[in-house]
């Protein structure tokens, strides 16, 4: 009887697994079509210099404009894309789209130069950060994809930052070699979601990276020694000549703490949400710079 029951469980499990796999396959196939059918769009979120309040760059964040589903956030489809080389196609598309966007903002500013001071002027010359999956980093494609996007757009490589999630440094054995090769193209490397992986501060001087992005969880929750950790990361980063970006700044007191701790840059709903390029406006001042003279 136990055996029969056991088989029943296995069968239910099989059914669920089969269902799960077919949903996965359908999502993947739909996503493949979406890439071809221009259903993917990039939204952009400003990253502010916390000292001057100026926006020097934006982060490109993908969304899926899926018919019948509305605007689908990346967490709902990036994991499906990462199960195959589809994520490399997506990354290649994102690199090209983001750099093309920069050329369009540059061109709009030149065209509207007569009436300078318009929003176009603030978008010219911006840098852009593109998120790159560990699978794409590990692939033989990424280096060529980055070089091709730079060559096609003519964008100066210093304006492109590649964001790699911290855990990838452990998961992808060739990560450091790949990052070194990418940096030779002249692009910058940021470690995303820093603090969620296993990098020790002692490793920082040996990492071929330019920027640490402190994970939102450390910025938003004040408890459990997070404030001390953030301060420690910022001062360690600075002693190794790395820039620090705080992500997920939602409240003024979070911003004030980061400014007091000499964090270089920040991004979050307090300043601006990620938006479609047509609606993108650059925040004029960083709230903290108005009263940080003390
Ligand atoms: P991420 O790279 O860490 O991006 C930051 C996420 O935090 C974004 O979520 C952004 O909308 C959100 N965010 C920014 N400021 C705030 C804030 O003040 N409060 C809160 N609660 N959230 C804030 P999003 O756009 O949903 O992206 C989620 C993740 O999906 C990204 O995390 C990134 O890992 C991945 N992703 C997005 N676009 C791409 C892409 O083109 N390629 C790849 N491989 N991954 C991408
Ligand atoms: Mg990112
Ligand atoms: Mg992040
Ligand atoms: Mg994050």
UniProtKB/TrEMBL annotation:
Domain EAL: 24-288
Top-rank lineage group of the source organism: Bacteria
Shown chain mapped onto the complete sequence: 616 to 909 of 909
Record-given protein name: Diguanylate cyclase/phosphodiesterase
